[in-house]
Amino acid sequence: MANILVCDDDREIVDAIEIYLNQEGYHIFKAYDGEQAIEILSKEEVHLLIMDIMMPKLDGIRATLKIRKSSSIPIIILSAKSEDSDKILGLNIGADDYVTKPFNPLELVARVKSNLRRYTALGSLNQDGRVLYQTGGLVINDDTKEVTVDGEPVKMTPIEYSILLLLMKNQGKVFSIDEIYESIWNEDAIGADNTVAVHIRHIREKIEINPREPRYLKVVWGVGYKIDKQ
Question: pLDDT for 10-34, tens place per residue?
Fold first, then answer.
């Protein structure tokens, strides 16, 4: 079963999350500031991180930025702030998901399971055959979960990989923001515009030479996004 690191300066919240995740069979590591979280990540095998934003010593924003330099594990941001700007900031720094306090513990557990499924799929390896999706110099090997552009490997988070794979499997088809969100997150697309747009921008920054003039991942204004066949 997966190891989950819960980081929040409120020990009662950490203990409450631990109870719910233990009931699902997960092993929990606990940290109370960003420095402790980074130290645990350097020593232990962690499959998912739940990170509060407002913490002493090293806050969740700066800690996430440091973690993303060396790790692509799923990160769920916890915060009492609910404004869209704060959610976008969390996604911009590399978080995969965002849960606002106060939260329903069952919703948090569901999001943990969803993000772990994507992470597990990203790391899985099927030796029975090669499943390749290609357009121009952009290639996805869905057996090894590897993305390359002109032969150079590109590091993707699980969410980014899932979005890119969806578009690559359906080259030429335009997906609306709601369709992308519902396909990847498996929930109703309520207020999904900013979430999807941030991840699309991250993907472009990784696969395009000039993200402002994308060769692969293109927008159809007022409709959605697509990847053209080349």
Answer: 999 999 999 999 999 999 999 999 9
Residue range(s) defining the domain that contains residue 219:
132-227
CATH classification at residue 190? 1.10.10.10
Instruction: Could you list the beta-strand ranges (E) of 17-95.
Output: 27-31, 48-52, 75-79
Do residues 82 and 157 share a domain?
no
| φ/ψ of residue 84, rounded to 5 | -55, -35
Q: How many domains does the chain have?
A: 2
CA-based nearest residue to 74, from 51, 57, 101: 51
What is this structure's pTM? Answer: 0.65
Amino acid making up residue 189: A
Q: Is 140 in the same domain as 117?
A: no
Question: Which CA distances in Å does 77 have to 15, 105, 149?
Answer: 17, 14, 30
| Chain segment 122-161, per-residue pLDDT in tens | 654 333 445 688 888 898 988 888 899 988 899 998 899 9
Minimal CA–CA distance to 55: which of 32, 82, 38? 32
| Residue 16 identity (one-letter amino acid) | A
Which domain-ending residue is among 123, 146, 181?
123
User: Residue 110: which residues within 8 A CB-CB, separation 6 or more?
Assistant: none
